[in-house]
Amino acid sequence: MGYNLLVVVGIWLLLGNVIALAQLVRPFKQNMVVHISLLMLLSLGSTAKLLGSGAPHLVPSPPTTGSDLHLPLSFHAIVQSGVTDQAEFSSILARRP
In which domain of life is the source organism classified (predicted)? Predict the structure, then answer.
């Protein structure tokens, strides 16, 4: 995540410098500069939100044992059977070997 954030900040700074150089060559109107700045901030915020959403994946999961390996298959079979009631779902899980 740190590397991705570094790349995003680097690109953001590079775009800011390109806009500043373009403004020296051909002055933008004031509202155009504000508009471009707001778009850059919005994209930076969206990228940070996307990078932040991956945070739970950074926590290592506990090691699985042999008895845990059949849980996804059992869960998949229960879901495909069309169970929608919470009590019925719990009773099926309780009967699972």
Answer: Bacteria
